[in-house]
Write a sequence for this structure.
């Protein structure tokens, strides 16, 4: 069992440290935050909260938090604020896609799962890489909690277990059912799908510091526990990849095809399916294409066969 001193000596965001300190003997903040979010879901269900889709405003109201759409520029997607009367409010930015607003509300509520949330003040800084990394860990935990509330484990896993094909056809059906974005749905699917090795990569057309001529580079990768390897940010898909055709031809969802990608200087062959992501004018850095990577043998499960 780790000692109190061993926990606080690790380089972590202050709120993450407080979370760990409030659960002595536990090392993984992701496990803690998932458990806390699921407890809130169970509590909300007892008050008649049901779905899918699951209403974020009803959810927060059960816990005494009001929501308000704000039309002036918040310089962020949302924020949790105490009002003079002592009540908590979640303000979220107007003019965003409904799927994004719903996730934002759950994300802001997730701040209340941290024991020091009353001391939280919205801040946006990038003074150093270290501070950015610490903030990223904290915000990622809030995203994990938001997914638990937007796409509750019990309902979502039941839907996933009915699927024979875990490609973008399933992602689109699930995201419409839960009124969630493609990225939130595919992340949740990757995390909970345990029947096949799979990974999702999000690709950007913003070159930045990436080498090569593009037109696409991997921005992020999320493998499930069965997937062997990791596609590093900056990796370029083959010039003939369906991900490139998806971007150039503006294809909604492609059929899956076998492709060989060079990963860390070595060829790796996957069954690849791509989907075009929506353009978000307020976030030009948002990825343009998502791709699911499967074993080539998984082609026999494709519903298009």
């Amino acid at each position: 069992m780790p000692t109190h001193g061993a926990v606080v000596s690790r380089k972590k965001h202050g709120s993450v440290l407080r979370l760990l300190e409030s659960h002595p003997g536990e090392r993984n903040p992701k496990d803690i935050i998932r458990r806390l979010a699921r407890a809130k879901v169970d509590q909300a269900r007892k008050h008649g909260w049901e779905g899918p889709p699951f209403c974020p405003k009803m959810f927060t109201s059960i816990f005494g938090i009001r929501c308000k759409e704000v039309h002036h520029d918040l310089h962020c997607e949302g924020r949790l604020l105490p009002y003079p009367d002592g009540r908590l409010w979640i303000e979220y930015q107007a003019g965003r896609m409904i799927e994004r607003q719903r996730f934002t509300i759950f994300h802001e509520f997730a701040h209340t799962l941290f024991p020091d949330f009353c001391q939280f003040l919205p801040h946006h800084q990038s003074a150093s890489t270290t501070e950015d990394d610490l903030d990223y860990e904290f915000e990622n935990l809030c995203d994990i909690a938001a997914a638990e509330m937007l796409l509750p484990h019990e309902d979502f896993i039941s839907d996933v277990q009915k699927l024979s094909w875990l490609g973008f056809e399933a992602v689109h059906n699930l995201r419409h059912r839960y009124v969630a974005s493609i990225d939130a749905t595919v992340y949740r699917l990757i995390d909970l799908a345990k029947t096949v090795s799979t990974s999702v990569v999000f690709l950007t057309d913003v070159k930045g510091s990436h080498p090569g001529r593009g037109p696409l580079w991997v921005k992020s990768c999320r493998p499930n526990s069965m997937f062997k390897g990791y596609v590093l940010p900056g990796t370029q898909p083959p010039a003939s990849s369906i991900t490139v055709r998806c971007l150039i031809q503006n294809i909604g969802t492609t059929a899956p095809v076998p492709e060989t990608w060079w990963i860390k200087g070595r060829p790796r062959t996957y069954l690849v399916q791509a989907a075009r992501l929506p353009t978000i004018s307020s976030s030009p850095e948002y990825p343009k294409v998502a791709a699911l990577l499967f074993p080539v043998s998984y082609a026999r499960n494709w519903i298009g066969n």
Observations:
- The longest strand covers residues 266-276.
- The chain is about 35% helix and 20% strand.
